[in-house]
Design goal:
- The structure holds three protein chains of three kinds.
- By secondary structure, chain A is mostly helical.
- Chain A is 73% helix and 3% strand.
- Chain B is an alpha/beta fold.
- Chain B has two domains: 1-63 and 144-227, 3-Layer(aba) Sandwich (Rossmann fold); 74-141, no CATH class.
- Chain B is 42% helix and 15% strand.
- In chain B, the strands form two sheets. A six-stranded mixed sheet of chain B has the order 4-5-6-1-7-8, with helices on both faces.
- In chain B, helix 3 crosses helix 4 (98-112).
- Chain C contains 15 helices and two strands.
- A two-stranded antiparallel sheet of chain C has the order 1-2.
- Chain C has one domain.
- By secondary structure, chain C is mostly helical.
- In chain C, helix 1 (6-23) runs antiparallel to helix 6 (146-168) and helix 11 packs across helix 12 (250-266).
- The mean pLDDT of chain C is 88.
- The chains are: A mainly alpha, B alpha/beta, C mainly alpha.
- At the A-C interface, helix 4, helix 8, helix 9 and helix 11 of A face helix 5, helix 11, helix 13 and helix 15 of C.
Chain lengths: 287, 227, 316
């Protein structure tokens, strides 16, 4: 029984990180209607920023989090302002393609610059664990989980209660009306996309601490972020949390009971099912 | 509930006008007939047979054609091909050969007066021409019943007269017409009978004279202003 | 482009391509075969993505099924290649029809993602099948005859292009175009959208599967990663779009051009080739979203304004 508990705890810890990963994608998708296929590449870059800060400047990965977020925010902002804005009124498919192109460019640039070797961020406390309810919890995973959840809640609060948040939501609902109220869509779009990228950067930073990184991790993470966003529903940041926890636990359980090679099949199988049965996700609004 | 408890009959070969203030449910009625939405209760019979369970494309095969209030031309196709789609897929499955369909399309373009625009991209057309295109597309389907949803909205006097003439030609071919309009002039000169909807209910039915002088109808149109 | 020289030129090009194995070095023939298979994929995608407007990001699934069907038939059941190819193709068609039904009900982004997820999932599913050799894959019988595979691939490209040609001037094709331009209006006008979408999907699957089967036999090897290679999806979509989705020759031109340039770059640094692809997509989508076909048609009239027009239409 305690093995099951361990697996579930692993799943939840993983799920928290997954939720943060998916949050940036869901935000940009829900608000800007941009499906960002380069999202995973942003996560990958965040991980590399963290890695190099750690290896070259000995900055603790958790302390490097703000820097990762800031640098990715800048990248996202610039990309949206100068490249993606060119396609706002084009068919959705064009945006899909261009984010795909950006994904390819970032991935292969990373390979050229960073090389394809696997890297790991190993702070001194990487090996320490503590026990909780009979399950072993690695310290870094617990920290990652806590930060991930904290960021998610913060973002949700910002969107719901600040002026920027309202501006963002206004643009999402009615561009013309938003303009009439003095909101400059170009800036808001760029800020939102930048925020999505920043969240991806944060996820990458945390990911680098719990797992190996190389330039190619992006695609699988993008796919997982999709799965989580769709399973949880796009309208609701809480949905992303639920989706993330669900997927994390599902993968953990599948690994144990069916076989580790099946965990991806399980997640994607669930994704396809949700798309078919309830495209708005588990927590999405039905109207 | 957009429409509730609306029952009426449409007789073959007649032009039935459907009027009512905005939001009365007129487009909903048309959508229920064309198959765009399904009724939650009640029956829809076409030539005696129930069709409420049929998807939209099957109803087209039976001979029900409609125009959309928010005009939907096929943007990437030229005007002729837009109409050809109607000819290819209309009543009884339409034509099987593209060439025949294009010939039909040319005929209908002439019928509505759009021949000079045949080779232009459909999304380059201005408002009034788009209405004619909508009409031609629906006519190319060779419908037995034509549902027209505010075909005259936004047109000025001369254009309205032209469209009225076209609809008279349509009736002359034996096609039954259900006409949703706000332009009373058109309703009066075209309709054999008129139906009035308000808040999703039928509030009057009769000739255009009776209906337009009915105090309930006048009240419905002016009612919101009185308050 | 329907000039008097259209058909003769096309025929001449075809003859040159067919004669390649006798006049070109082996390296070029191999490159040719790969390019022709990619062209087939791009052209198949054109049917569902270009004409019907349903941008599938998972057609690699059919390529893989075709490859595995052929491989399993030949390796586990000792059937000849022709039968294996037939089996692989049939499997793909059945798969397309079965999975098409639920998945084609989704629109836009959701459809794209569902197909992407399918493709990703297949890799996992197949790597757990014993009959398919699990993660290790299968080794097919050897047939050392590059010319054979080259001509076969050329034949396939011609076949799928003829199919697209027929589609473009048939009632079926018009139905697909109507669905692409406005699915609801198409339905109201009498198009059986479900039937037509499924058929387009199955057709795309059929030709993709045949390409997969030929490829598997040619390189005598198949494993989950190479069979369901996700980057194939990318390439076929880019090639079709760059050349001109919804046109007859666009995807072919796109495939040949992009494959050639990528090949030249790959001899330098292999990552450069992929990087190049990424940049091509970004630039093409911004400045020439309708592909080369539209560019060649309208550039003579508009000149450089063509690019500015595209920008102006789509920017914020």
């Amino acid at each position: 029984m305690s093995l099951l508990l361990q697996i579930i705890v692993n799943g939840i810890l993983l799920g928290g990180l997954y939720a943060l990963m998916a949050l940036g994608l869901a935000l940009v998708w829900g608000v800007l209607n941009i499906v960002n296929l380069a999202h995973g590449a942003f996560i990958m870059l965040g991980a590399y920023v963290s890695y190099y800060l750690f290896t070259l400047l000995h900055v603790d990965p958790f302390a490097a989090l703000p820097l990762c977020m800031l640098s990715l925010f800048a990248l996202g902002y610039l990309l949206q302002r100068n490249v993606l804005n060119l396609l706002v009124r084009a068919p959705m498919f064009n945006t899909l393609l261009i984010t795909f192109g950006i994904d390819v460019v970032l991935t292969y640039l990373a390979q050229i610059v960073f090389s394809a070797d696997f890297r790991v961020v190993n702070p001194s406390y990487a090996g320490s664990n503590f026990t909780l309810l009979g399950a072993t919890v690695p310290l870094v995973r617990a920290l990652a989980f806590a930060i991930a959840l904290g960021l998610t809640v913060t973002v949700w609060l910002v969107l719901a209660h600040t002026r920027l948040g309202r501006a963002v939501r206004a643009c999402a609902q009615n561009l013309l009306a938003a303009r009439l109220y003095g909101v400059e869509p170009r800036t808001v779009y760029a800020l939102t996309f930048g925020l999505g990228a920043a969240l991806a950067g944060a996820a990458g930073n945390l990911y680098g601490v719990v797992s190996q990184i190389n330039p190619y991790i992006g695609d699988a993470l993008t796919a997982k972020s999709f799965a989580i966003s769709i399973i949880g529903g796009l309208d609701n940041p809480l949905g992303v949390v639920v989706g993330g926890l669900f997927l994390g636990t599902l993968e953990s359980l599948t690994s144990l009971y069916v076989g580790s090679t099946y965990s991806d099949v399980a997640s994607f199988g669930v994704l396809v099912l949700v798309l078919i049965l309830r495209p708005k996700g588990l927590l999405g609004r039905t109207t | 509930m957009a429409v509730s408890d609306v029952s009426f009959e449409l007789f073959e070969g007649e032009i039935l006008g459907l009027i009512g203030p905005n939001g009365a449910g007129k487009t909903t009625v048309v959508s229920l007939i064309s198959g765009t939405i399904a009724p939650s209760a009640g029956k829809v019979l076409f030539q005696g047979a129930p069709i409420a369970h049929l998807p939209a494309f099957r109803r087209s095969r039976l001979g029900i054609g409609r125009t959309f209030q928010l005009m939907k031309p096929f943007p990437g196709l030229d005007v002729l091909d837009n109409v050809a789609v109607g000819a290819l897929f209309g009543t009884d499955g339409g034509k099987s050969r593209l060439r025949h369909a294009r010939d039909d399309a040319a005929y209908w373009l002439d019928f509505v007066g759009l021949t000079h625009r045949a080779k232009q991209r459909a999304d380059e057309l201005g408002g009034p021409d788009r209405k004619r295109l909508e009409l031609a597309k629906a006519l190319a389907m060779n419908p037995r019943l034509l549902l027209l949803d505010e075909v005259m909205a936004g047109l000025h006097h001369v254009e309205i007269d032209e469209v009225v003439a076209i609809i008279k030609k349509v009736r002359g071919r034996g096609i039954t017409v259900l006409l949703i309009e706000h332009v009373m002039r058109a309703i009066q000169s075209l309709s054999d009978r008129v139906l009035v909807l308000h808040h999703g209910n039928k509030i009057a039915e009769g000739t255009s004279e009776t209906v337009l002088n009915d105090p309930k109808v006048i009240d419905a149109y002016l009612g919101s202003r009185r308050k | 482009m329907i000039g008097r020289y259209y058909w003769p030129t096309l025929a001449a090009v075809l003859v040159v391509f067919a004669a390649l194995p006798w006049i070109a070095p082996p390296v070029l023939i191999q490159f040719g075969t790969t390019t022709l298979l990619l062209a087939t994929l791009a052209q198949s995608w054109n049917i569902i993505g270009g004409y019907a407007g349903y941008a599938s990001f998972g057609n690699s699934v059919f390529y893989g099924i075709g490859g595995y069907g052929t491989a399993v038939a030949m390796v586990q059941f000792n059937l000849p290649f022709g039968i294996g190819l037939l089996i692989g193709s049939l499997l793909a068609v059945v798969f397309a029809l079965l999975l098409g039904l639920p998945v084609l009900r989704l629109r836009g982004h959701y459809f794209a993602i569902a197909t992407l997820a399918l493709a990703e999932a297949m890799t996992g599913v197949v790597s757990n099948l014993d009959i398919a050799g699990r993660n290790i894959g299968l080794v097919l019988p050897l047939r050392k005859d590059d010319a054979f595979f080259y001509e076969l691939s050329l034949g396939l490209v011609v076949l799928v292009t003829l199919a697209v040609f027929w589609i473009s001037r048939s009632r079926f094709g018009f139905g697909l175009i109507a669905i692409r331009e406005d699915e609801d209006a198409a339905g109201v006008m009498g198009v059986n959208t479900t039937l037509y979408k499924s058929t387009a999907f199955a057709l795309a699957g059929l030709f993709s599967a045949m390409a997969g089967g030929i490829h598997a036999y040619w390189i005598t090897f198949i494993d989950p990663a190479s069979a369901f290679d996700i980057t194939l999806n990318v390439m076929m979509i880019i090639m079709a779009i760059f050349g001109g989705a919804g046109t007859i020759l666009g995807p072919l031109v796109g495939a040949v051009l992009l494959a050639s340039i990528s090949e030249v770059l790959a001899t330098e640094v292999s990552a450069m080739a992929s990087l190049f692809f990424g940049l091509v997509i970004v630039v093409a989508v911004i400045f020439m979203p309708r592909g080369l076909a539209d560019l060649t048609r309208r550039f003579p009239g508009l000149g450089w304004r063509y690019f500015r027009e595209n920008l102006r239409l789509h920017r914020l």
